[in-house]
């Protein structure tokens, strides 16, 4: 005997339960696909569309080009620089001391005869490593804390936000100066960190004091997005919390995360320059732009002012390029600015 089945053909009575199970699975799969489609409707458009929006900001494009040139120059500094990072102070090198800019020494030489163009390239490398390193670590910590607080809510949100507030009230510059002067910094004797006078130590310290804005941004985005209809549809379809977070919520927070990361690079470069200028940043044999500016502060208003002008100019151009590119990325990614 057969009963009235679906238009595709009769269904046996003995297989009715199996048909119902198959139909339910199909409906759940359709709901999940619908939730995915709704979620990704708010994601970034195709790369070509994003590039068109970014190209519509000439200053942002110029900033990206300048940043690319500076990054390549820093990356290939050993091949471009006329001198090594720590040249041997031979008689011929010392004979070139305090020479102004020329074709042989584009940025001139310092009191020891070291080529300033070479030192600027190596200093640019340190500034970019510190800036990018701090931005990456800050984003990882901030996104983790903010996502967990925004998704879990309740006492987890309260605890993590009070922890974030605790870090926000710490005077960053004071902590940096204290830690930089400590030859063996540690966390209550449990974890030992490299000092801030080394690149790795500076990255750790600046990131530890700079992740809080990212956490607050991501938390706010999660609190808003988790109330959307497609999140309710995903929950009803049986999607796990991990799937919802990584498939639906984080992709829609990509815009603020990218913008924060780019701006964090510029802020960190300035912080590193300030610490080096105060004498508590990167130390020899490493060289940084802030260190070069500090070494040449007494040359202002003299014929040797080029010793401070060129490192300062490169630092200014670097930070300006990062900020311009960050503004362009914000406008290109922000869904509220799309047409």
Task: Describe this protein with a few key phrases.
two-stranded antiparallel sheet, mainly alpha, MetI-like fold, about 350 residues, elongated, disordered N terminus
Order of helices and strands: EEHHHHHHHHEEHHHHHHH
Shape: elongated
Percent in helix: 55-70%
CATH class placement = Mainly Alpha
| Major β-sheet annotation | 2 strands, antiparallel
- Quickly give the structural class: mainly alpha
Strand content is: under 5%
Major beta sheet, strand line-up: 1-2
What is the CATH H-level superfamily? Answer: MetI-like
Total E-strand runs = 4
Low confidence ranges: 1-28, 30-45
Task: Work out the helix count.
Answer: 15
Say what the CATH topology is.
Answer: MetI-like fold
Average of per-residue pLDDT values: 76
